[in-house]
From TrEMBL:
<dbReference type="GO" id="GO:0030672">
    <property type="term" value="C:synaptic vesicle membrane"/>
</dbReference>
<dbReference type="GO" id="GO:0031594">
    <property type="term" value="C:neuromuscular junction"/>
</dbReference>
<dbReference type="InterPro" id="IPR008253">
    <property type="entry name" value="Marvel"/>
</dbReference>
<dbReference type="InterPro" id="IPR016579">
    <property type="entry name" value="Synaptogyrin"/>
</dbReference>
<feature type="transmembrane region" description="Helical">
    <location>
        <begin position="142"/>
        <end position="161"/>
    </location>
</feature>
<protein>
    <submittedName>
        <fullName>Synaptogyrin 1</fullName>
    </submittedName>
</protein>
<keyword id="KW-0472">Membrane</keyword>
<feature type="transmembrane region" description="Helical">
    <location>
        <begin position="21"/>
        <end position="42"/>
    </location>
</feature>
<feature type="region of interest" description="Disordered">
    <location>
        <begin position="184"/>
        <end position="224"/>
    </location>
</feature>
<dbReference type="Pfam" id="PF01284">
    <property type="entry name" value="MARVEL"/>
</dbReference>
<keyword id="KW-0812">Transmembrane</keyword>
<comment type="similarity">
    <text>Belongs to the synaptogyrin family.</text>
</comment>
<feature type="transmembrane region" description="Helical">
    <location>
        <begin position="96"/>
        <end position="122"/>
    </location>
</feature>
<feature type="transmembrane region" description="Helical">
    <location>
        <begin position="62"/>
        <end position="84"/>
    </location>
</feature>
<feature type="domain" description="MARVEL">
    <location>
        <begin position="12"/>
        <end position="165"/>
    </location>
</feature>
<keyword id="KW-1133">Transmembrane helix</keyword>
């Protein structure tokens, strides 16, 4: 017979993917906003602004780039989660899930690097470069949410791996995969006993009584 997919479990995995991407978008927006709005300061006697992280422009550029690209990546995966149930090709389904696993693991590593980079540059920043202590809360918020982003992307990668295992177990990646709603409708009807009741000697043990009875079957007539 045809294999049925775990429709309910698959639906729950899509819902988990949708909700798990929301913290990723929020964290990336916070990091981008903190550095872009309050990540550049200057001394009272200076006009040009420098990065708040030890005046290292690369630190601010890294944070802004990572925040904006992570947000766009989250939006792309959110659209993929919505479109995923409509993908009928087995190869495309596998590629989508494997891409989710690989890219989520990549972003986990990139946010780990970003957290270490920003934390190190903030630690070695000189107080005389920011005598008014402007933007300190924004810098600490960017570092904190960079740390949180590591684990949220690891969680996203884990959920994608769980979806891959679920797809392998529920025939989601099998060539015999069929829509559960169409599986029952397309199944052929068979009789309860499995045999044709009208056929001679079939199943019910009934004989054909349409012809005349001639008494040749061994039955002897008795007169009363």
């Amino acid at each position: 017979g045809r294999k049925r997919s775990g429709g309910g479990r698959e639906g729950r995995s899509h819902d988990a993917g949708l909700f798990s991407s929301l913290p990723l978008q929020l964290f990336s927006i916070v990091i981008f906003g903190c550095i872009a709005n309050e990540g550049y300061i200057n001394r009272p006697n200076e006009v040009e602004e420098y990065c708040i992280f030890n005046r290292n422009q690369n630190a601010c550029n890294y944070g802004v780039f990572m925040g904006s690209m992570a947000f766009l990546c989250c939006v792309a995966f959110l659209a993929l989660d919505v479109y995923f149930p409509q993908i009928s090709s087995v190869k495309d389904r596998k590629k989508a899930v494997l891409a989710d696993i690989g890219i989520s693991a990549f972003w986990s590593f990139m946010w780990f690097v970003g957290f270490c980079f920003l934390a190190n540059q903030w630690q070695v920043s000189k107080q005389e470069d920011n005598p008014l202590r402007e933007g300190g809360d924004a810098a600490r918020a960017a570092i904190t949410f960079s740390f949180f982003s590591i684990f949220t992307w690891v969680g996203q990668s884990f959920l994608a791996f769980q979806r891959y295992k679920l797809g392998a177990d529920s025939a989601l990646f099998s060539h015999e995969y069929t829509d559960p709603s169409q599986d029952a409708a397309g199944a052929p009807y068979t009789s309860f006993g499995g045999d044709d009741l009208e056929s001679p000697g079939g199943g019910g043990g009934q004989t054909n009584s349409d012809g005349p009875f001639d008494g040749s079957g061994g039955y002897q007539r008795q007169d009363y």
